[in-house]
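Schema walk-through. Below, the input block comes first and the output block second. Nothing else is stored per chain. Lengths vary across the set, and this one has 462 residues.
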Amino acid sequence: MLGMINKNFILLVLIFGLSSCIPDRLPPEPVPNTRPSFVSFGTIDKNNLVFPVDAPIEMKFNWVMDLSTFPDNFKVESVSGKIAGKFSYAAESDTVVVFTPNTNYMQAEYYTVSLSGAVRNINGMSMISPNEEDVPVTAWFFTEGKYSENGFPYVFVRDKANKQVIYRIGDLNVYKDSLYVNATTEDYQTAAIEFSPLGKYLFMVNLKTIPGTVTVIDPQSFSIIKTIDVGLGPTNIGFSSDKAYVTNTSEKSFTVIDLASLTALETYTFADGFKPKDVVYSNLTGKLYFYSSSKKEVKVVDAQDFDNNYTLDSVLTDNKAADIEISNNGKYIFLPENRTDKIVILDAETDKVAQVLETGNPYVTDGIMGDNFYYQAFFKKVGKENIGGIMKVDVQNLSISEIKVWDKDIDKLGLTAANELIYAVVPNDTTVQIIETKTLKTLTEAKLSGSLKYIAVSKNNY
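--- output ---
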C-alpha cells in the first residue's frame, strides 16, 4: 500500500514538472479592430477668424493615434504654399494630436486644413477601410493681420431709404450702433461717405434740392464735428493731401474744402456746363479728373488754377462712366463704363487710354483702389437671376488677375487700410460681406436691418 502511495506521488511530481516546462499555449489578448473616429479640429472649430499666426492645430479623436502616420496624411496650405510642422500628443489627452507649425503662417491669409482617412491609431487601424473612398476631413481659418492690430477698423454703411442714418460695424463683423444726422432742411438724398486721407474724419455728402452740405464725423466717437455748406446737388467727394473736392452735379460746379480748418474755400463753376459726378486727384500731375453725369466726357482741371481745364471726349467709347478711381502713384485712372463690361484705364501723364479691359461681366458698378490691385464689383442678368461678383485687376500689368462670381448683387465696396479685407454691400439681403483680398474668398458677414448703399472703412483700428 505504501508502495502504491509512493508511486502516485512520484507520478504527480513528474506531471507537475513536465507541465511547468510546456509553454503557455493560450491565445494572446485580442487586438481591438475598431476604427478610430475623428471628433473635431478643436482650436479651429471654436474660432477660425483672426487665427494667431503661430497657433497649433488640435485634432481630437476617440482613440490614441499613431503620430508617424500624420505627416503623409495631413495638410495645411494657402495660396502661399504648404506649411510644414511637427505632431505630438496634447498634454491633457493622448487622444488629441497637435500640429505645431515650423514657421508662422502668413498674415491675413486664408488657410485650408485637410486630414486624410488613412491616419491610423496605435493598433494600426485607419479611419477608413482600403475599399472606402478617402474624403478628407477639412476646415479653414483666416489669420490675424494688420486689420486686427490694436482692435479692428470701423465700417460705416449709409442707409439709402433712411437717408440720414449711418450704421457702424466693429469687431470685424458686429453691428455696433447707428448715427442719425439731423438736417436743417429734411430733403437729404443718398450720396457718398468717404474718409479723409489720414483717416481722421468721415465725410458724409448730403445731396439736396437746395444747396447741399457735407457733414464731418469723428469715426471714433461717432459724433458730428461740423457741417459745411457746398453747392447744389453734391454727389461725391475726392481728396488731395490737404484739400477735399465735392462734386456739385446740379450746379455744374465743385467746392474746395480745406482739411485743416474744415472750411469751404471756394466753389468753382464750369463755364461750359460740364456736370461733374465724381472726382479723383493725381499727385503725379497735380490735376483733378472728373467724369460727367450725363455725357461720355472726362474733365481735367489744374488743381492750382481751376480755369486751366479741358475736356477729354474720346476716352469713353460706349457709355458714360459709372465710377472713377486712381492708382496710388497717380498714374492710372480707372473708369468703368456704365451698363457695359468695359473698364477704361486712362494714363494721367499722357491723357491717352492705356488699356481697355473687357470683363465679360456687365454691368460694372463700384470700384475700390488698393496699393497693387483695383477691385471692381459687377452684376449681370442670367435668365431671371442677378449674378454678382468682384474682379481683381493688377495695377502694374493692367490685367485681370482673378474673378469671383457668386449669387449676390454687390453694390458698393470698401477696403481696409492694409488691403487685407474687402467689405461689400449686398443690398438684397441687407448684409455686408467680408472678403479676403488674396483669393477673394468670403470669410463672414455683418447683418444690418436697413436699406444699404454707400460704405466707408476707417483707416485706423479702434
